[in-house]
Amino acid sequence: MRKEDDLEVHIHQLEERIASRRARLERDVDDIGAATRSLAVSPGVISAAAGLGFFLARVTSRKPAAPKTAKAGGLLGLATGIGMTLVKLRYGDPSQWVGKFLSGGRPRPGAG
After folding, report:
1. How far is CA 72 from its chain centroid?
2. Where do the structural domains in the chain lie, given as residue ranges?
3. pLDDT tens, residue order, the chain (112 aa)
4. Could you tell me the pTM of the whole model?
């Protein structure tokens, strides 16, 4: 019977140790939760979180690519402007050149 008594005493001691550690763990969790809540609502942390959010949104957002037709239209407009400038330099004012062309006369280089 002595062994049974020793065994029960040993089990009782283990149960008390487990209960003590559980209570200490619960206190630590409560303390950490309170510290986290007080830190999370500080103005500096809120500002840093907002700044990080804006930064991540800017980095991860994708800008829509310009359609290729818009790029081609821009190049076509540039080429048209250069072409008209060359025509104007060579044949004078384009409206006079078209008038001469429609009336049957040929435009002369350098006229204008």
Report:
1. 28
2. 1-61, 67-112
3. 677 888 999 999 999 999 999 999 999 999 988 887 777 777 777 788 888 888 888 888 777 666 665 566 677 778 888 887 877 777 677 677 677 777 776 555 555 4
4. 0.36
Question: Of the candidates 62, 25, 94, which has an alpha carbon nearest to the alpha carbon of residue 112?
Answer: 94
User: 24: burial class by Cβ within 10 Å (0-12, 13-18, 19+)?
Assistant: exposed
Q: Is 105 helix (H, G, I), strand (E, B) or coil?
A: coil
In whole angstroms, what is the distance from residue 95 CA to residue 111 CA? Answer: 13
Q: Which two tokens stand for residue 104?
A: 């049957």
